Amino acid sequence: MLTRKPIIGVTMGDPAGVGPEVTLKAVASDRVRETATVVVLGDYDHLEALAERYGINVGLQRVDGVDAITDDGPVDVVDFDNVGDFEFGDLRAENGRVSLEYVDRSIDLAISGEVDGLCNGPIHKQAIGMAGSEYAGHTDMMVDRTDTGSHTALLTDGTIYVTHLSIHVPLSEAIERVTTQNVLDAIRVTHEKLPEAGIEDPSLGVVGINPHAGDGGVIGTLDGEEISPAVEAAREEGIDASGPLPPDSAFNRALDDDYDCMVAMYHDQGHIPLFVNSHVDGGGVGATVLILGLPFVRATTLHGTAYDIAGRGIAAPESMITGITLAADAIRQRS
């Protein structure tokens, strides 16, 4: 049982986006400081300049490595000193390169156990691609580096919990992926990995794909032909799964605690309820992402680099705050 506050490595993300800003705001919050010991991986001078620019009251301290971090006092920053000239909102390879350096080092620290878990600030998929990365994002890098097999992204605001059959694919492809085997696989991995988030023996609500979950075949047949057999097979395996549920009302039942977690069929079906339920002033979102199945605890913001508002000082830090605190909770569950 962990008797100290978990040590969480936080990567500041793309320097031209809102990642450094939300990182500063998050590590300055009492909620984070009371929950975890945080060490930031990023560019010290860049963070110091932004803290002054935005008037964020946070003390920063440059350290060479995590062995020098302290629990109280200034927030420790492992300084990469890799941000040169930049413009907010500027999509370019250099921004992708430096943000990848933070992520790569964070994986090293998590694998070695020098930190208990991670919370990653947003990086830009195009920028890291321009920098030569073969990965679509953080998660692919971590899965590859750790030879992780079965895993899933759990999206949550602490009230609604949701996994997805598919995420970043066109809607037409998402529909094609709704097969009995794929749905069953999504149910299985959700059931298997949710204990990492402290949810034992979860009850799962499986969301249908068509309006009214097909209405008995009147509005499409995928629900009856593909999703229903998957739910039945899962129940035969001892998994507490129900569905297909009508998509328009399914998440109301999550709010009523009828289900511990929802299994959505595609990106917007699961993301929209979370964005609405965790909305914060200014268009921000308080929900976060936990990747289940990795050998270490890892969270990340649910939002991206938000180049359109970068540099204005208005980015909401709630997603990163939630990510750090839920990561700390998950670490305690595993210890």
TrEMBL record:
Span of the signal peptide: none
Phylogenetic classification of the source organism: Archaea, Methanobacteriati, Methanobacteriota, Stenosarchaea group, Halobacteria
Provenance organism: Halobellus rarus
Q: Which UniProt keywords apply?
A: Metal-binding, NAD, Oxidoreductase
Task: Please give the Gene Ontology molecular function terms for this protein.
Answer: metal ion binding; oxidoreductase activity
What name is this protein filed under?
A: PdxA family protein
Which Pfam families does its entry note?
A: PdxA
Q: Which domain of life is it from?
A: Archaea
